[in-house]
Amino acid sequence: MKKVLSVLLILAMVFMFAACGGSSEPANDGGDAETPDVIKIGFFAPVSAASAAADGKSSLNSAKLAVKLINENGGINGAQVELVDFDDGLDTTEAANIAEKLAYDDSIAAVVSGSYSGPTKVAAPIFQEAGKLMVSAYAVHPDVVNAGNLIFSQSFPGKLQGTAAAIYATETLKAKKIAIISVDLDFGATQIEAFKKQLEKMGSDAEIVYEQAIAISDSDMSSAVTAAAAAGADLIYSVNYYEQAAQVLREVGQKGLDIPVLGTEGADSFELLNIAGEYANGLYITTNMNRDDQNAETQAYIKNYVNEYGIQPDMVGASVYDAFQVLFAAMKEVGTDTEAMRAYIAGMENFDTVTGTLIRYNEDGSAVKPVQIQLVTNGEYHSAGTIDDMEVIDPANYQ
Fold first, then answer.
1. What is the pTM of this model?
2. What digits encode the pLDDT tens for the residues 243-266?
3. Taking the CB of the first residue and of the last residue of the chain, which one, N or C, has fewer CB atoms within 10 A?
């Protein structure tokens, strides 16, 4: 019995020292988290919304393409990526419901918003409260990133875009009498406010001779374009999504008006070219995608998108694709720990994306990047300039 007890005591001491002796592996400090076998990324977009279906399609296409390509190239540190996607229908209530599902699902590593400002700014606080990281692809409203430090925006805010538009309208297009036709949503109001403020700041002698906000459900632009022409406008600033923007162009063209139109990223869509047809030629837009950029990421994305879907990509899809590239880069380096990903993304600098170089993210999570000016010629978007003045493109200047 004594011998048995001695053996048992010795074995117990061996196991105790093995447990306390530690491992030769370095301690995990949270910056090199273990990667799971499958990485799930949540996603939502306005796929079924009548007024946003083209953008929803473009968003979902690019999300699927990003996941397909990363998996074909070995995934993230050997783990395959799974897309968990939802259709928000451009409805804020549905967006909130989707956010609740994704935010409190522990299997979801992070989320990308491929939707407009309305759904995204409703979802953002839910993700922040739940401790889930989200990257917004192209929503312009400041409330998105203002939700907290786990929310990032891949595009620039509406105020920045409106400011850039005012500079281009007056300095390059030499506009003196400007008519504004806009969608009656935050998207329109935010950019118009900044546009007017910049005109005042510049001391420009350009004046607003006509202004009309139109419900997103109304696609009849005839009276607004007629009134703009009657007011003597030498430029129409069209702050609309693709369908209404296309109708503005059709009215200008069909009425035989010699008035240039300056649009926004909302008009950056393959569907605008389909709806407006020949009348799209001559349209200027502020956006974040330059199709003529010869960097490898941009041209590879365009080629892959066309091969996959048989149509040209647009700003919406490119911004979604970029949002996934940002997450992929973070997950490759630090794993899927939320705080580690947040810190990595917040510290990114000069990161090459499909929409050009991401200079950095500001403290509020907004991307700092140049504004691209595109001009439709021969039915295609092409570069007509870049605004890269840091005073203009730094979102911190619009708080």
1. 0.87
2. 999 999 999 999 999 999 999 999
3. N
